[in-house]
Automatic annotation (TrEMBL):
Chain ranges of the ATPase domain: 15-170
Entries under InterPro entries matching the protein: ATPase_dom, P-loop_NTPase
Protein name: ATPase domain-containing protein
A GO molecular-function descriptor: ATP binding
UniProt cross-references to Pfam families, sorted A to Z: ATPase_2
Natural source organism: marine sediment metagenome
UniProt-listed Gene3D superfamilies: P-loop containing nucleotide triphosphate hydrolases
Amino acid sequence: TELLRQFSKDKKHLFFSSDLSSEQEQLKQFSEKIFQLTGESFLQTQPFGSWEALLRYIFDHLVQKIPLIIIDEFPYLCISNPALPSILQKIWDEKGRESNIFLILCGSYMSFMEKEVLGSKSPLFGRRTGQIALLPLSFKDLKLFFPRYCEEDRVFVYSILGGTPAYLQRFSDHKTIEQNVKEEILNKNGFLFSEPRFLLIEELREPAIYFSILKAIAFGRTRLNEIVQETGISDPPKVNKYLSVLRELRIVKREVPITEDKPHKSRKGIYLL
């Protein structure tokens, strides 16, 4: 979201941040955003009643003056109306290719974006002109967040938080690392205390099982048979399936000795957070 805001700040654009409200409320909010940019008075008394009507207005009228359209948290809109990707696909096929629109769909639900937007079974498959999977910032970027910390302290911070900007912003170099950890991670009211749980609940259908697998890995049970024993899940192929999902979400990685000829089939692989 912050990257898109920085990208669009010096351009004519429409930036709509979705939420989990009803479809009617989402259409009302989107109509209000368009009204703020265009001054079209009818939108105040008669918001768009469907996504097809709203999208057609954007493609037929709005993009002539405002070509950059950003929809943040696109999955939220699809939750209230699962047909939205196919509606967008229909209008895109009619008008998108000949339009000067620069349409950006953004979402923090990685599995949804990969399957429902980019996936081969998605109505939007084959219509993208590019995609960015935002990876964490590198260690060298921490200087911008924590100029007062020494290099060693920044190593500690990076080992705790990784490179996610939203997490890095919760720590302050006006405080010690210990103070930051106590306030933001160990404090039950801290922003980061429940973040792992929220992330898994958003992405996964059986979070309790995934929690037990992650806990096993965190306690040093890094081989498949060790994870099976620690979690009590009697079916190794099932555990393998859960691990594959965690790898897709980039929560877990699998490492294999470099000497293995067929690493994907190797039994010497270990799983790390």
